[in-house]
Design goal:
heterotrimer; A mainly alpha; B mainly alpha; C mainly alpha; A: mainly alpha; two-stranded parallel ribbon; two-stranded antiparallel ribbon; B: mainly alpha
């Protein structure tokens, strides 16, 4: 295991204050909110319905972040500005202070840049995409809110501000996913995203409280400092706190099994998906892990927590990639691909590859935004999300086609595109840290990635057109951002070739390495070509197989797509039954509460008798039909059916009458008061 | 005068409010019951203030806040009732179970 | 304090009178089968409460209660009653009869618990009478000094309630009406 001692090799860090742009970096955090207000109040009167403000704010931010990035390249920047807002009380003799502010260091500068740059291009694209749509003004207001909340999150110098930004991101994503709320399933998707994230947020908040109270300070600087010094009070809570923070990250970064909201979040307009998957939402979890990295790296408890995080990352990267094989909706293919790539990042960070995870986050932001915007361009042209309505579009939409291919190759990890270098670095880290088995799974994942992207490209752009009407290339407002994103998708990988430094500018590793608390992660001196060859071979094999199955003859594409491998396909089509399990759980938790209310309401014991009877009935039915009748081979079905039946049986006890709830509330409060009165 | 004589009357008023809250079907009447409960709280605050006599009359200040917020609550509550009535032609809460999943 | 010495204070006679008013009319608010009467009983309850406030030397709050509640809130209730077309006469459907026993039991237990806890907590702690009200100047200074932030927030809440109330209660125009309006 790498430890702090590895750091000696990192060399002393020369950090500068960064001057004006670092000192006033908080303006970046505020601008999107100003834009939000301006759009809400004046947006409707403008020609572009308020997009001007959103784009203007983002453009300033992008310039600002670029300046910071360049400053950070020449000399590491570290600057932290804090404003004390209030004292939030005492705990064990330590006063807890609530501060807001911003931190400017390698990690946050990288995130500022990604959010502003990708955000700017997505905003510009959205002007073309949303032309003539409903509620355009509100859409851009929410987009600004989304980007602003994410900037508050990545700029947070302490856990409390991070939580504020975190919840803001959740709220804005809810608004945007449910943008077309006229359709029930869209607003349901928004609710699902919100609830799933809320479940995870509990973990984040508890973890923050645990870590913050342990040392009496919520700031990352203090926590990381304490972790680097192996502080005893922090060590005591490191395992639980680390896992809880990770649980929070699982929700936002869509790690198995909390990934279920992300594919449904495709209900939002495509620019939202692009922004969400590339820059503003799903990266938050990875960012949190990177920000609190010393807790996981330097403390024994944190190390133990990592052992739990690695399998989850590996399951996510492989199992979720498989799901992309069967999706017909092009956005869902990309969504599962995002989940899978997030698995790569999480695995990398969990095994100790701080730079590897962040670098993949960096390159992924560009090519995934590119892919989503390309998919949006196609959807815009054919008015359908389904690949079975597409095909043969490469002639009609040449710019979209070429940029999409570049994004796909980059995602598939083909040399010399960006994805190759970042994926290779993750593989190298896995190899170095001694997780060979997981490394091979990651290589298999690379094969799957290449395969489903080839399928998507073939079904969309090759063969014959199967939809209605005449598709045509999207306007320049939409294709220019595609080209602008294709450039970093190709070249971003060169920023971090192991062993290559650009003179005094260093490379990506030194850029994100600018931080006050040092931590060790592995940097290979040169590319391990054997390993790279494995990854590359897997990618090429995936492309080859995909091309053989879907690429060549147009007519049999769909027939081949419908080939169903007996066991695997039903499992994948039903998304491993994760939605069923989640729904069953919801039914279960809602059951007991509703049951209690009903019991008081009917104020008879037969309520209990009925309840027991019903539960027994459900149990009996489950035993009979689930175990006895169907046998062990239907365990998946049985479990989900049982959860479903129990859920709906108990659901009847939930009446929906406000007054019964009020009564339960009063009775509950009364019981508490009586308990206190009696036991005092 | 003792403190408890006011606290008991506040408790009684509060319990009456709870009774009304549970038993009434008409949404307007439920709001009335809620007003009773808020009023009971006000009595408590004023009574305690009379005992403590803080230099800035904190109890009375809070009563004023409660009265204000209660006025806002009645405004919104009645607006909601009116809207629901317009859509469903009824102000009886057991005619609508919007809280049901 | 013994009951005799308590009852010998004249102010406690005043208390008994207004306490009875508050309790009886409060009881009628939740039991009467006539919507308008319920609102009027609420007036009586609030009036009694205001009198109790006066006894506790909280003049300003007492008159605020009268002005805001009796003057505005109850009028609002009467409007609500009219708009929802609740019958202005006896209406048997105002209660959920089968909920009565539970509700009565629950509120009785609640009352007993609350009184018991206050009894044990405060016993016969006395309220010292100062004989004069709280200076309104103190209230004003506190409201605009130490409590200025909550004061502003409450103002904002009122504004929000105003806007929200208008938005909620406003009837959307039918497409036909909208057309007529725009053609003018």
């Amino acid at each position: 295991m790498s430890d702090l001692r590895v750091l000696a090799a990192e060399g002393p860090m020369n950090l500068t204050e960064g001057g004006f742009f670092a000192e006033w970096a908080g303006i970046m955090l505020v601008l999107p909110f100003v834009a939000f207000l301006l759009i809400v109040f004046f947006g409707k009167r403008l020609k572009n319905l308020g997009a001007e403000f959103a784009i203007g704010a983002m453009a300033i931010n992008a310039v600002w972040a670029t300046v910071l990035l360049v400053q950070n390249m020449t000399a590491g920047v570290f600057r932290e500005v804090n404003f004390e807002i209030a004292s939030i009380g005492m705990f064990e003799g330590r006063s807890l202070i609530f501060e807001l502010g911003w931190v400017v260091d390698g990690l946050s500068i990288m995130m500022y840049f990604v959010v502003s740059f990708v955000g700017l291009l997505v905003f510009i694209y959205a002007v073309g995409y949303m032309k003539g749509d409903v509620r355009v003004t509100w859409f851009f207001a929410s987009l600004s809110l989304f980007a602003g909340a994410m900037l508050v999150l990545v700029g947070a110098p302490n856990l409390i501000q991070l939580i504020i930004g975190w919840e803001g991101v959740g709220l804005a994503s809810y608004l945007l996913i449910g943008h077309y709320w006229e359709k029930k399933e869209n607003s349901s998707a928004a609710m699902k995203a919100f609830y799933t994230n809320k479940v995870a947020d509990v973990g984040l908040i508890l973890g923050a409280i645990l870590l913050g109270l342990a040392i009496g300070d919520f700031s990352f600087a203090a926590i990381n400092e304490a972790a680097a010094n192996h502080a005893e009070p922090l060590e005591a809570v490191a395992f639980a706190g680390g896992l809880l923070l990770f649980f929070g990250a699982m929700g936002k970064s869509a790690q198995f099994p909390l990934h279920i909201w992300l594919p449904d979040a495709m209900a939002g307009p495509t620019p939202v998906s692009a922004l969400m998957h590339a820059a503003t939402m799903v990266t938050a979890g990875i960012y949190l892990m990177a920000r609190t990295f010393p807790v996981y790296q330097n403390l024994v408890g944190g190390e133990a927590a990592r052992e739990w995080m690695i399998p989850i990352g590996v399951i996510t990267l492989f199992a979720m990639g498989l799901l992309a094989l069967v999706a017909d909706d092009i956005k869902k293919v990309l969504a599962y691909s995002t989940v899978s790539q997030l698995g790569y990042m999480m695995t990398a960070v969990a095994v100790g590859g701080y730079t590897a995870g962040l670098f993949h986050l960096f390159t992924h932001a560009f090519f995934k935004a590119l892919l989503f915007l390309g998919a949006g361009s196609v959807i815009h042209a054919v008015h359908s999300n389904n690949m079975s309505d597409m095909g043969g579009l490469r002639k009609e939409m040449p710019r979209t086609f070429w940029t999409f291919v570049i994004g796909s190759l980059s995602l598939a990890g083909i040399i010399p595109l960006a994805g190759f270098f970042s994926k290779d670095e993750i593989l190298a880290t896995l190899d170095y840290e001694g997780y060979q088995a997981f490394m091979w799974i990651a290589i298999a994942g690379a094969f799957v990635t290449a395969f489903y992207m080839t399928r998507a490209v073939s079904l969309t752009f090759f063969g014959t057109y199967k939809g209605h009407g005449h598709p045509h290339e999207s306007p320049a407002l939409m294709t220019v951002p595609l080209v602008a994103l294709a450039v970093p998708s190709v070249f971003a990988g060169f920023l971090n070739i192991p062993g290559v430094e650009f003179g005094r500018f260093g490379n990506f590793t030194t850029w994100v390495g600018a931080r006050v608390v040092p931590m060790g992660d592995h940097h290979p001196a040169a590319i391990d070509w054997t390993l790279a060859a494995y990854g590359l071979t897997a990618g090429l094999l995936g492309i080859g197989l995909g091309w053989m199955m879907f690429g060549r003859d147009a007519d049999t594409q769909l027939a081949r797509d419908r080939v169903e491998i007996p066991v695997l396909y039903p499992l994948l089509r039903e998304k491993y039954y994760m939605d069923h399990v989640a729904l069953g759980l919801v039914g279960f938790t809602k059951g007991p509460a509703a049951k209690a209310v009903n019991w008081i309401n009917t104020y008879v014991i037969d309520g209990v008798v009925n309840g027991v009877g019903a539960s027994m009935g459900v149990l009996g039915r489950f035993v009979y039909s689930g175990l006895d009748q169907r046998g062990v081979d239907m365990v998946f079905n049985g479990a989900s059916a049982a959860a479903d039946a129990a859920g709906s049986a108990l659901r009847k006890l939930q009446t929906g009458r406000v007054q019964q709830y009020a009564m339960g509330f009063v009775a509950g409060a009364l019981v508490l008061v009586l308990a206190v009165a009696v036991f005092n | 005068m003792i403190l408890n004589q006011f606290l008991v009357i506040a408790a009684a008023l509060f319990s009456l409010g709870v009774y009304g809250l549970i038993v009434r079907r008409n949404a307007v009447m439920i709001l009335l019951a809620v007003e009773l409960m808020l009023n009971a709280v006000n009595i408590n605050l004023i009574a305690f203030e009379a005992v403590i006599r803080s230099s800035q009359a904190v109890g009375q200040i809070f009563t004023i806040f409660i009265i204000t917020v209660a006025a806002a609550e009645v405004g919104i509550g009645l607006a909601i009732v009116i809207m629901i009535f317009r859509n469903r032609q009824s102000a009886n809460v057991d005619d609508f179970n919007l809280m049901k999943f | 304090m013994s009951f005799e010495s308590w009852i010998s204070e004249p102010i406690n006679w005043v208390y008994l009178v207004f306490g009875a008013v508050v309790l009886v009319s409060g009881f009628r608010v939740v039991t009467t089968q006539n919507v308008v009467r319920a609102a009027l009983y609420l007036v009586a309850t609030l009036g009694g409460t205001a009198a109790l406030f006066l006894m506790l030397s909280a003049e300003f709050v007492a008159w605020t209660l009268v002005l805001v509640y009796i003057g505005a809130v109850v009028v609002l209730f009467l409007f609500g009653t009219m708009i929802t077309r609740a019958p202005m006469v006896r209406d048997v459907g105002l209660d959920t009869p089968k909920a009565r026993p539970v509700a009565a039991g629950l509120s009785l237990i609640l009352f007993l618990t609350l009184s018991y806890t206050t009894m044990t907590a405060f016993g016969s702690r006395e309220i010292v009478q100062v004989g004069e009200g709280t200076d309104t100047r103190i209230l004003g200074e506190a409201l605009l000094g130490r409590f200025v932030l909550p004061f502003e927030i409450v103002g904002f809440i009122l504004l929000a309630a105003l806007v929200g109330g208008v938005t909620l209660a406003r009837r959307d125009l039918t497409p036909k009406e909208e057309e007529e309006r725009s053609s003018v």
